[in-house]
Amino acid sequence: MTSFITDIAVWLLVAGGIAFVVHASTQEHYRIAWRQLTRRRFAMVCGGILCLYATIGLLDSIHFEGESETVSLLDRILWKLKTGGEKTYSAPLATHQHSKESLPGADGRVTFDYPKLEHGGAHLEDAASAPGDIVLRILLGVLLGAVLGAAAIGAAVGVQRLRGGPIRTAFWVGGFLAAVCLIVCVVGALAAGYHVFGTDKIGTDVLYRALKSCRTGLIVGTMTTLIVAPFALFFGISAGYFGKRVDDVVQYVYTTLASIPDILLIASVMIIVQAGMTEEATSITAERRLFWLCVILGITGWTEMCRLLRAETLKVRELEYVTAAEAFGAGPMRIMFKHILPNVMHLVLISVVLRFSGLVLFEAVLTYVGIGVDPTTESWGTMINNGRLELSREPMVWWNLFAAFVFMFGLVLAANIFGDAVRDALDPRLRSRLGKEKA
Amino acid sequence: MTAYILRRTLYAIPIILGVNVITFIVFFFVNNPDEVARSSLGRKHATLEAIERWKRERNYHLPYFYNDGWQKEGATEIPASGWIHLPALPAGEARLTVEVPGGTGFAKVTLVCSPEGSIAPGSWAGTPESPPETPEGFSPAATASLILSKRKETLTFTVIHPKGAELRLYVELPKDQARLIVRAQRFEELGPLSRFTQTLFVQKSLKFLIFDFGKSDRNDRSITGEVKERVGPSLSITVPMFLLALLVEITIALFVAYVRGTYADFWTVIACIALMSISIMFYVIFGQWFMGKTLRLLPVSGFDDGAYSAKFVLMPVLLGLASGLGVGVRLYRTFFLEEINRDYVRTARMKGIPDARVLTTHVLKNAMLPIMTGAIVSIPFLLMGTLILESFFAVPGMGSYTIEAIARQDFPIVQAMTFLGSLLYIVALLLTDIAYTLVDPRVRLQ
Description:
The complex is a heterodimer. Chain A is mostly helical. Chain A is 71% helix and 3% strand. In chain B, the strands form 2 sheets. Chain B has a 5-stranded antiparallel β-sheet with strand order 1-9-3-7-5. In chain B, strands 2-8-4-6 form a 4-stranded antiparallel β-sheet, with no helix packed on it. By secondary structure, chain B is α+β, with helices and mostly antiparallel strands. Chain B contains 16 helices and 9 strands. Chain B has helices spanning 2-30, 33-41, 48-57, 194-197, 200-204, 223-258, 263-276, 280-294, 310-340, 343-350, 355-377, 379-384, 387-392, 398-408, 411-439, 441-445, and strands at residues 70-79, 82-86, 92-100, 106-113, 118-121, 139-147, 153-161, 167-172, 179-187. The chains are: A mainly alpha, B alpha+beta. Chains A and B meet through helix 9, helix 10, helix 13, helix 15 and helix 16 of A and helix 1, helix 2, helix 7, helix 8 and helix 9 of B.
């Protein structure tokens, strides 16, 4: 097992998340919020999509030593995609390379033609039979997906019968799982013989790259907010609870930090981090850079969370139960962490889901500016950055950007819709307040 | 009200100073000038002499906060064997520090200078020992031997010479291959004020307050001059974009508020969420390809002066508008819906005013308050330009200036832009508050 610093952080987050869910399931106000959330079907579907991305990201966060390099569990699953590279560009589902090359013919003459791909469609005797083969594979995938999907729906209905819950829910959950099965089976059936999203400049399978990028997107989206959450909680609650001098100082610090433009502060720190990493680029330094990127993004973003927490604490502090605790002689630390903290915790959750999509988009911009993730780290930002001139190639290469677009759009859209639903369920009043800050 | 505005203005001052200190800390402590010089010169060429010269040329040799009068003259790294020629010192009082690397055994260090000068061992006290034979034309020497330990030793000599001393250093080390670092400092009497002004903090950070941003590290061009030149092109993109966005977004949001609760409303909101889920990079890349390359309607990138710039400005403006549309419409829609539920709207409707008119007069007027707040806060963004758009469309504005500086690691420019951006933001916030007091009587009463 090899552990990158980001992997450790990811699994700590997962452990924290599980602990939170276990704790929240015993709390009535979280249960009410959950029930409200489950009523929004569309948002729940988006939540399911997020879970799908999270599964890919987590599979990619278990690393161990391979033969020559560190590989993740996801690499093992996608081994065929990882190792089945070509020489250079090839279009999605193609059997021949995208550009012509000089080929030695059987009779010794050199012809200038599109060479056959090494892996894409290599199982075919005759390349001309590819369209038929593709249709066959899609049908096979649909068939397999339908069988698995039907099983999923059946299982969901069965479980719901046993629990005695509404059957409609079972159809929603089962239906979602069936759709996922269908897509996975079709893509899987195609990917077994072809490059579903084509290959990029150096011949790497684009589907593989897009899947590998999920981890980076998720890490930047979640870890950034959570890394600084403890500081925001501590300062926000202290400022709200103690008031006076403490409040003045905390307010001064976050107003000052918030007035520095995010991208410039990140740029100044990232070029320094870059300059500091003089040793040769390895996967370890790339991971370290990703971690630092999250820390710096977090530092520029904690001010908003801190402001929300302070405002909420100001309100909670005046409630009777805090006065009661004070009357019993509880110290300020005890009141802050035992009585106020649980009642403002939901703001952290809201911050995470609301900032998530913005951060995933921001990563692409930062990578373009040259202050994002390491160029060797797989991310949608790197894919866009590498592919930004490919549309003007002759003939056009569109599949790199297309794959990045599909995967990124799916995640961000799902996160936006799910995030709004979570916020509405936990704290509907926040809508207008947060809206103003976004401007 | 005047008192309130005054108080708000005064409150902005410590924040501006705070930003100044933070940027200084980031650029001079987290990343120190030595490191900047090293990466700027390239690691292969970064000898100690080159670094010191680079720093002197750009005034990075000054102390951080307090200048005691000892000015760094330069430094050199030399192999320690026998008599070493040192660079001549300037006239007057000077100080020479010799860093002897750690080791075991004894080291013998002798410093001699040309006649008329005198040398005194400064902070260091070693055992006096018989000096080696003084070279011809040099006066008697300061000599010492010292016991080496693991840590490096620093020896300080004070040299006084009316004309400027020629110096020779004699070193005997157990390890001959070791290298010494010799640093020279010159004393200069400074007035009480210059002791604080002749520092990095004042010269390289506090001067920003009077809009003196100094010079770029890479070339000799003044940053203030560049900013003046580049604000124009930036504004020619951001101002039309800003006004157009405001107009389009408010119009759509008003329409959506008018048809609230219908399918049109629902699908517009969904479309907004979809629009804001697309990275700006896709808008730009796709727009350039579609409008510039496939349709050949507009030039792909470039810029021109005056009226000729219109055809270059159009595409970035449209793309900027598209990328911000989703966020804007959704936000303004919430503002309108919030107002619609107020009592005065109900009263107006009850009086029989048609819904459309209530929206365009009553609701719009009141919702303009939060809309304007957001609009004023985005003024700094107008001046600072847009990084992505300017860089993709090769507009010589502030955004592309910043991006280039980041790519070339030109720290003074990045630092200046960071400070300028923060300053504008703080001023914009201040303006918002003042605007509020002028428009909203409730704030005035507080």
